[in-house]
Amino acid sequence: MASRTLIAATGSLLLLFNASAFAVWTGHGTAYTPHGTYNGAHAASCGGGSCTHGGGVVGPYGGLATNTGTVTRTAPGQFSNSGTATGPNGRSVQHDGSTSCAGGTCSHSGAMTGSDGHSATTSGSVTREAPGQYTSTGTVTAANGNTYNHSASTTCAGGTCDRSGTVTGSNGGTVNHAGSATRVSTGVVTTGGGTTVVHGGTVTTGSTVVVGAAPVAYVPPPPPVTVAVAVPPAVPVAPPPPPPAAVYVAPPVPAVVVTAKLPPPPPVYVAPRPVYVAPPRPVVWVPAHWVGRVYVPAHWA
Q1: pLDDT tens across 80-89, in order?
Q2: Which of 55, 75, 192, 281 pairs with 273 at a CA distance of 20 to 30 A?
Q3: Residue 206 in contact with residue 29, Cβ under 8 Å?
């Protein structure tokens, strides 16, 4: 069980390296062992800084083992993970851990606690040695104090990554594993040629991972934009001058003709000479008014 736990822990660390670039992915695989064939499937989705995964494996006799969990980015280069693995017999193992990445190396530590109260601890690291070159090391310490050390290397070129590694127990026994993963088309990766040698028996594995498009996020429309229009200040306007009042013009005084009494005319008749008296100058009342910007009060003229 410890070797299987170790392989699962190592896979989780590699998943942390690769799954963050995808929003949704699914996969299925098959393992051929001397004891029968095991079929598995898994899926994961990422959003909001977290990736949640779930999967299961069905054995040759119908037993089902499941594993679910979440990996969350807590800060730049900092991650935490937790989850639960449940075996065909109903027993479960709770696992959690943390990962820190800097300078091309990601270091991981975690713990696993079974339903019987026994616990195990894990630690390890993955380092990018060169473009397409990676190495990993780690240790699992079981509840009984036994330790299992593992080391592996991965080389990627031309769309294919080849890996190989070794697990060594406290008693000196070893487990060797090797395999490859190839990108066959956009969003599709297959693994094949994978073998694990346990106690002289060979386990052959193969799987396919399909990467889906990221979910389309709904973006609400922007709120309406309110444009403030500056209103110029009111300019005081002088009231217009009052309309000119009607001007009364007195009618002209009629001419007065005065005829003087004369003594009886002499023998020579002289016609009376009319005297013209000029009428008096009319007086006009001029109301108050404006002349340009000058105010003229009412007056007689």
Answers
A1: 999 999 999 9
A2: 281
A3: yes
From CA 178, how far away is CA 204, in angstroms rounded?
10
According to DSSP, the residues that pair with 156 across neighbouring strands are: 161
Residue 90 falls in which region: left (phi positive, over 0), alpha (psi -120 to 50) or beta: left
Q: Tally the domains of the chain.
A: 1
Full-model pTM: 0.58
Angle ∠(238,239,244) on CA atoms, nearest 5: 130
Q: Is 154 exposed, middle or buried (0-12, 13-18, 19+ CB in 10 A)?
A: buried
pLDDT tens digit sequence for 42-55: 999 999 999 999 99
Structure tokens at 286: 């001029």
Q: Evaluate whether 122 touches 138 at the Cβ level (below 8 Å).
A: yes
Report how far residue 9's alpha carbon sits from residue 124's, in angstroms, rounded to the nearest whole number. Answer: 9
Quick check: 22 and 43 in contact, CB under 8 A? no
Whether 263 is covered by a domain: the verdict is: no
The domain containing residue 187 runs over which residues? 2-212
Residue 126 CB coordination number (10 Å): 23
Do residues 126 and 135 make contact, with C-beta atoms less than 8 angstroms apart?
A: yes
Q: Are 269 and 262 contacting, i.e. CB atoms less than 8 angstroms apart? A: no
Q: What is the CATH number of the domain that holds 94?
A: 2.40.160.10
